């Protein structure tokens, strides 16, 4: 019995320590952002007196409202597009057998191995020819095919009860009607979880928007504007970084289980 | 479990084929639907991933300084020869290997230990805490770590009472990047392990306990072997993605420095792309890394199929 208790205690100690180490930097990010500008360097664990000056400062220096709106538009449009494109592709892969299927599937898997650093310059050149540089569309369009989305949805559809599809076909429903009236309703939890994951990924994306948008019009790029070669402006920097993470944490608090499941299934990208 | 693994898909049963041979147009119409559904994804994939890759392959046999007005000259294999003869490539590959090895404790060892410990205490709150860093945007993570590790005002140095320059000391920078990356991804690996553990049938351990096996022996001889597919998946992820995971942190925290101490292969590519004005060389490096990672992926998948125990 005592060994059981000591096991329990050691378990809580190990997990608790790791948990605190993981959360501490996040706590410190928000703690610093809420200190008065004169106390930035303070080591007191609680930011007191609380102050929103850093946030006000960040808002004055950069167009945070515009950035947050742009980031939200990009994240939602990207995720919605990726879901739709991925759903169609996964549907094609699971419902039909067709010549070239394996090869085409390998094309999707293989795209994971193509480094972003290889594609960025040719894609940049193509965007500039299309006149999409410095536009929100230019950020979204090149990312609309998410191999992750296709592979995940295919995996789920592979387990989809075939009888339902056959029953729909018997009823004389077209594949298009079957997709929307049979498959999508049944797949709703999966689509929701994947959608959240894709929104988070798109929200956190930095490099591609940094290339396409010259005027720092998204919040992840805004963070960088407080980092200088001469040293950083820590207060507003932490405030902007904190704001950039806030929507994701809010989603996490509300939808924790879904998000965790989505991440576990996804591999991570 | 792994997405890279092929799932068997049952073939759809079709209605019996009509006896009369259908017309050409009718056959086209019957064959078309899967391709139509695939078309949007395929067009995007070709335009935004494989066209650039093909362009990189072509460019790797040419020399060009990225200026639209200057000529693109064919040079055969010269870029590859140059690449393999400069020390940059070998050094960055070596540093990438070090990063992979350094990240493995975070992506494999700690998660397995945590998973085994968590199995005997109720710890959803801990999992939530360990997972949180995963959600922090890489740039925001870099910002707060830069603040924590600041040589003068940073909390880490002041709490430890040292004056280490974590990010700009050639001996420390690589280690710092590894630890920060480890912090960022450990929660993901913990979740993967706990998913793997919950998929193990408890009957085996119960039977062994009935036969008088100790906890340690059960862990060693039952749990860990049954967890091996999960562990193989994590190793594959670490090998293939470490360079990607570290990249945004390197770019924000050290820019590959000090004196290249944190330049891994992706940072080298990034650097070739933007700073060297040598498009051919950068393209050659990209092609080499693509092929190299492809071979490693195939190798690790084959190897893990051989060493993993499956609960059949």
UniProtKB/TrEMBL annotation, chain A:
Transmembrane segments: 12-30, 72-96, 103-126, 132-153, 174-203, 234-255
Organism, scientific name: Actinokineospora xionganensis
Ranges in coiled-coil conformation: none
Protein name per UniProt: Carbohydrate ABC transporter permease
Cell compartments where the protein resides: Cell membrane
Keyword Membrane: yes
Principal location: membrane
The ABC transmembrane type-1 domain, residue ranges: 68-255
Family membership noted in the UniProt record: Belongs to the binding-protein-dependent transport system permease family.
InterPro entries reported in the protein's UniProt record: MetI-like (IPR000515), MetI-like_sf (IPR035906)
Membrane topology, as annotated: Multi-pass membrane protein
Keyword Membrane: yes
UniProt KW keywords: Cell membrane, Membrane, Transmembrane, Transmembrane helix, Transport
Automatic annotation (TrEMBL), chain B:
Gene3D superfamilies: MetI-like
CDD domains, per database record: TM_PBP2 (cd06261)
Family: Belongs to the binding-protein-dependent transport system permease family.
Membrane topology designation: Multi-pass membrane protein
ABC transmembrane type-1 domain location: 93-300
Transmembrane segments: 35-53, 93-118, 130-148, 172-200, 221-243, 279-303
Subcellular compartments: Cell membrane
A Pfam family this chain is assigned to: BPD_transp_1
InterPro entries, sorted: ABC_transporter_permease, MetI-like, MetI-like_sf
Lineage of the organism: Bacteria, Bacillati, Actinomycetota, Actinomycetes, Pseudonocardiales
Protein source organism: Actinokineospora xionganensis
Full protein name: Sugar ABC transporter permease
PROSITE patterns assigned to the protein according to its UniProt record, in alphabetical order: ABC_TM1
UniProt keyword list: Cell membrane, Membrane, Transmembrane, Transmembrane helix, Transport
Annotated SUPFAM superfamilies: MetI-like
Keyword Transmembrane helix annotated: yes
